[in-house]
Amino acid sequence: MTPSLDRRGLTYGFAAYFIWGLFPILMAWLEPAGALEIVAWRSVSSLAVCLMIVPFMAGAWPRIVAVARDGRTMLRLTAASLLIAVNWGVMVYAVVTDRVASTSLGYYINPLLTVALGVFFLRERLRPMQLVAIGVAAVAVTVVAVDMGGLPWISLVLATSFGLYSFIKKDVGAKVDALTGLTVETAIQLPLAIGVLIWVHASGTQTLLVRGAEGLGWVHDTLLLTTGTWTAGALLIFAAAARRLPLNISGLLQYIAPTMTFALAVWYFHEPMPSARWAGFALVWVALVLITVDSWRARASAAVTPPGRVTEPV
């Protein structure tokens, strides 16, 4: 990997996570649109963006057709599509109900949950520091739950849905590139999205093309119709970064978005942050430091081949 590719990869990585970190502001700008309307248009416009890009990507259509004919892969992508739709919906709901800090906590917890999923599904063995990190994270969730008077369900649903989504995407990663995956997933979501938009219109809660006391206008309509541009753009930029960056750097960059979201929750949205909640976040940060250090050590150890170890197939 050349230095120029390193710099480009870092730029792409920062850009992708920076866009994701700004999502709460974009969602807030879409008020008074409800979470269902926003998520439905996000799905529709993401598919539209993908379909505009596909003709310019060599071999894109054959890859999409090949995936569509593979029942096993389609089953996995259908599950991934539903999981990411739930993730989007809960995230938007959290923003429009002034719970942005909960989204930050959810995405902070996600790397720790990914480790737990590896244990549950792949029967991976936890290293001591991983076990400590998960224990600290469990204490953090308990502290936040006591402070809130109940489980932080938004954080847990976000972490679980995105963790399972990432797990499935990793499973099909060798067959499905980022553009193909997003195109197929949003196409799967399309019937549901159209149904939601019909229901929103019938219930009288539609905000697109509505004029009146709310003062909605073309800016609102444009933002609502182009939410998919942010989604598709960030994902494709991230895919370009992932091809150029080592996993340890990508692992560190993933904390940019929840850190930005946390800062926005405190200093932009001015959400209340009692001492107990600060303590919960502090414990999560400790857990993330532990899991990151452990990951770096594990990769460094794997890079060193012990004397006498066979390194090629025999």
From TrEMBL:
<keyword id="KW-0813">Transport</keyword>
<keyword id="KW-1003">Cell membrane</keyword>
<feature type="transmembrane region" description="Helical">
    <location>
        <begin position="276"/>
        <end position="293"/>
    </location>
</feature>
<feature type="transmembrane region" description="Helical">
    <location>
        <begin position="180"/>
        <end position="202"/>
    </location>
</feature>
<dbReference type="InterPro" id="IPR000620">
    <property type="entry name" value="EamA_dom"/>
</dbReference>
<feature type="transmembrane region" description="Helical">
    <location>
        <begin position="73"/>
        <end position="93"/>
    </location>
</feature>
<feature type="transmembrane region" description="Helical">
    <location>
        <begin position="105"/>
        <end position="122"/>
    </location>
</feature>
<dbReference type="InterPro" id="IPR037185">
    <property type="entry name" value="EmrE-like"/>
</dbReference>
<dbReference type="GO" id="GO:0005886">
    <property type="term" value="C:plasma membrane"/>
</dbReference>
<dbReference type="Pfam" id="PF00892">
    <property type="entry name" value="EamA"/>
</dbReference>
<dbReference type="InterPro" id="IPR004626">
    <property type="entry name" value="RarD"/>
</dbReference>
<keyword id="KW-0812">Transmembrane</keyword>
<feature type="transmembrane region" description="Helical">
    <location>
        <begin position="12"/>
        <end position="30"/>
    </location>
</feature>
<feature type="transmembrane region" description="Helical">
    <location>
        <begin position="252"/>
        <end position="270"/>
    </location>
</feature>
<feature type="transmembrane region" description="Helical">
    <location>
        <begin position="129"/>
        <end position="146"/>
    </location>
</feature>
<feature type="domain" description="EamA">
    <location>
        <begin position="8"/>
        <end position="144"/>
    </location>
</feature>
<keyword id="KW-1133">Transmembrane helix</keyword>
<feature type="transmembrane region" description="Helical">
    <location>
        <begin position="152"/>
        <end position="168"/>
    </location>
</feature>
<feature type="transmembrane region" description="Helical">
    <location>
        <begin position="222"/>
        <end position="240"/>
    </location>
</feature>
<protein>
    <submittedName>
        <fullName>EamA family transporter RarD</fullName>
    </submittedName>
</protein>
<keyword id="KW-0472">Membrane</keyword>
<comment type="similarity">
    <text>Belongs to the EamA transporter family.</text>
</comment>
<feature type="transmembrane region" description="Helical">
    <location>
        <begin position="42"/>
        <end position="61"/>
    </location>
</feature>
